[in-house]
Write a structure and sequence with these properties.
This protein has no helices and 11 strands. The chain is mainly beta. Strand 5 and strand 6 form a beta hairpin.
Amino acid sequence: QVQLQESGGGSVQSGGSLRLSCTTSEFTDSNICLGWFRQAPGKGRETVATRGRIGVANYADSVKGRFIISEDTTKNTLYLQMDSLKPEDTNMYYCARYDGSCSWPQLWGQGTQVTVSS
């Protein structure tokens, strides 16, 4: 059974950094699109970063230049390095497997909370 498990969330001050981690068995297939989205209860979902085929990365405009998605296939782990954090980055972050176009998350973990204080 496919599983994704996030970790690394926490509370930081504005301008700080966090690195989220996601362990998943999905790395066995290099054609799978993996990524991160954020969503608060009752609010809309925003995909912040995806890693598509052959490792091509895409970012939401809101995080471009501040977040970096990466992976360590030897550890079956996907990362999201978040720098220059802003209060508006506060949210629940989810690691997900996306569809082939990297547009729609199909399966995700339980999420990890990120809180940025001003």
